[in-house]
Amino acid sequence: MFLQFIDIAKAFNRVWIDGLLYKMHKLKVSRKLILFLQSYLKGRSFVVRVEKDLSTPRTTEAGVVQGSRLGPHCFNIFINDTCQMPDTELCLFADDTAIMSSGKNADTTPSSIIT
Q1: pTM of the prediction?
Q2: Does 86 reside within a domain?
């Protein structure tokens, strides 16, 4: 048995929004919900505050909202089609992934692990 835990750095910030919406379409999510999420995710902007000073507004090009109820669900949809291997199981929750592999020929040496 081989077990590998992965935490993707800045995972929520890296979600390709158009790709997420396409994957939702392929999963037959209702058009109304896809349009709602599109309006929620696209065209967002942010400012940074340091003490009393605010930066100029910047728009986001990618990502889902961290700390929101929808963020982990959107991320899971985005990575849900990660390829499967024989005798391997993925356990996903948001940006935390556990890869479990078993089999008599499983090579678990560090050189066989893809990072």
Answers
A1: 0.70
A2: yes
